[in-house]
Amino acid sequence: MRLALYQPDIAQNTGTILRLCACFGIPVDVIGPAGFDMSDRALKRAALDYLPHVELARHAGYETFMEQRAATSTPPGRLVLLTTKAAIPHCDFRFAPDDTLMLGRESAGVPDAVHDRVDARITIPMRPGLRSLNVAVAAAIVLGEALRQTGGYPHP
Ligand SMILES: C[S@@+](CC[C@H](N)C(=O)[O-])C[C@H]1O[C@@H](n2cnc3c(N)ncnc32)[C@H](O)[C@@H]1O
């Protein structure tokens, strides 16, 4: 399991997600350009001292991210997009241990060209009329379900 953040624009959210992934041993891909620098104080405040404990890969853009995935010696697994514009509820989706869960940017999600290129799209069901969850909250909800299904929680 991996998490990918598409052009994140709020440092606190990325810091919170990095801490989440440090705790569960989940590698993170940050797909640029991001709306902040990785040395941002707000990111560090949210991630606390967990940053050295997360495996972080940074990519200049979506194309380089996809090229790098294709270049790995083992098949990269599915790219699963979390989006409010999907029909499959995350609880009904069968996760696999090699899935990469991709989250959109806070301001605009992902562009149509990215939306159309992923292997699967899933949504966290919400009450009608409300726009979306915070990206870090969405990451925690889906990562929790994916780890539960795949037996991927750490076994201390
Ligand atoms: C603040 S939301 C983005 C809202 C943006 N206006 C849009 O139209 O996508 C940031 C990201 O959190 C994730 N997210 C938020 N709520 C979600 C939900 N109910 N289901 C799945 N993903 C969600 C998605 O990855 C989304 O791109």
From TrEMBL:
SUPFAM superfamilies: alpha/beta knot. Gene3D superfamilies: 3.40.1280.10. GO terms for biological process: wobble position ribose methylation. Residues 2-143 form the tRNA/rRNA methyltransferase SpoU type domain. Its EC number is 2.1.1.207. Its main location: cytoplasm. It catalyses: 5-carboxymethylaminomethyluridine(34) in tRNA(Leu) + S-adenosyl-L-methionine = 5-carboxymethylaminomethyl-2'-O-methyluridine(34) in tRNA(Leu) + S-adenosyl-L-homocysteine + H(+); cytidine(34) in tRNA + S-adenosyl-L-methionine = 2'-O-methylcytidine(34) in tRNA + S-adenosyl-L-homocysteine + H(+). S-adenosyl-L-methionine binds at L82, G104, I124, S132. GO terms for molecular function: RNA binding; tRNA (5-carboxymethylaminomethyluridine(34)-2'-O)-methyltransferase activity; tRNA (cytidine(34)-2'-O)-methyltransferase activity. It comes from the Bacteria. Keywords: Cytoplasm, Methyltransferase, S-adenosyl-L-methionine, Transferase, tRNA processing. InterPro entries: Alpha/beta_knot_MTases, SpoU_MeTrfase, TrmL, tRNA_m1G_MTases_N. The keyword Methyltransferase applies. HAMAP family: tRNA_methyltr_TrmL. Methylates the ribose at the nucleotide 34 wobble position in the two leucyl isoacceptors tRNA(Leu)(CmAA) and tRNA(Leu)(cmnm5UmAA). Catalyzes the methyl transfer from S-adenosyl-L-methionine to the 2'-OH of the wobble nucleotide. This is tRNA (cytidine(34)-2'-O)-methyltransferase. It comes from Hyphomicrobium facile.
